[in-house]
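Title: Prediction job returns without error message
Component: structure pipeline
Severity: low
Priority: P3
Assignee: unassigned

Description:
Job completed but the reporter wants confirmation the result is attached to the right record. Sequence as submitted:
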Amino acid sequence: MKIFFISDIHGSLYYTKKALDCFKKEDADYIAILGDELYHGARNPLPLEYDPKEVAKLLNEFTDKIIAVRGNCDSEVDEAVLSFPMMAAYSTVLYNGRRIFLTHGHIYNEENPPMLGKGDIMVFGHTHVPKAEKKGDIFIINPGSITFPKENSPNSYGVLEESTFKIKDLDGNVLKEINLL
């Protein structure tokens, strides 16, 4: 099984299309969206091709493949136009005998991690900065942002296949890689 991770879309139709093209090229089985799907947020400028209604339509085409969580810019009205649940603060996925804790990062993050077991993985967005490291007994991963990257990082996504997590730019170039064994 291959899981494709994106975060911080912020209503950009342009970057949603690019990310979904990457999902298709990666031939992944599922898409994990780590929050901030539709609204650009009060601190962000309007993103390229800001069109939350069309972003919702595009994402809804992949409903059966999406696992999503709520970001700090998401609200109940967003879930009303999306055909998949996305208002939970976190979700848990079991993958190859370990737990993957999916969250946005504004509640649970590396400074405030949930209770996880040895070898478990926390994947979050929110900071818009890619990260892949082992901290203590758990793995801390952030695929970055497809729309608003920060700290001179490129627009990026993540892919988990077997025991390797890769963070890639939108051209498919590997930025970071971590072996989860």
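Comment from assignee: result matches the submitted record. The domain at 2-89+143-179 is CATH 3.60.21.10 (Purple Acid Phosphatase; chain A, domain 2).
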